[in-house]
Amino acid sequence: MDAIKQAVDSGAQVVFPNALIAGDVVMTHLISRLGLFDKIPVLFVNTLHLFDETLDFIEEIEKHYEFKGHISMAEGIEGDRYEAKKNFDKKYGANLWKEDIEQYDKVCKVEPFLRGLKELNCETMITGRTRW
């Protein structure tokens, strides 16, 4: 919690990319305990291939912790849930992930992640991941 507070106190724009893995859920709770959701935007990347339960979980977390996350997805794709997936399939094909995994990763993960950080003016990123 001290590291999170120090990041915010540094004056840099802190962003929390949340992939809903266990460490990220813990970080969400810690940010809430510190009362810092007004200073730390949360970035979710919708790969447009997430389970409905995952999208429901995002909404549950937002409601429970009383914040609204920033959702980023493939560039040029609009809509919510099924509409967005339908638009993605029309533009890239429903099987991009099978046909060209590198392109899928670029379009659905890397580019939306980097664009989301840029849109949120990220200067410092915090995560629930560790580096060994």
Can you describe this structure?
The structure is a single chain. The protein starts with a helix and ends in a 7-residue tail after the last strand. The chain has one domain (2-125): Rossmann fold. It contains 6 helices and 4 strands. Helices cover 52% and strands 10% of the residues. With 132 residues, the chain is of the alpha/beta class. A 4-stranded parallel beta sheet has the order 3-2-1-4. The protein is elongated. The mean pLDDT is 95. The chain has helices at residues 2-9, 22-34, 52-65, 82-92, 96-99, 101-119, and strands spanning 14-17, 42-45, 70-72, 124-125.
Question: What's the short story on this structure?
Answer:
With 132 residues, the chain is of the alpha/beta class. It has 6 helices and 4 strands; from the N terminus they run H-E-H-E-H-E-H-H-H-E. The protein has one domain (2-125): HUPs (Rossmann fold, 3-Layer(aba) Sandwich).
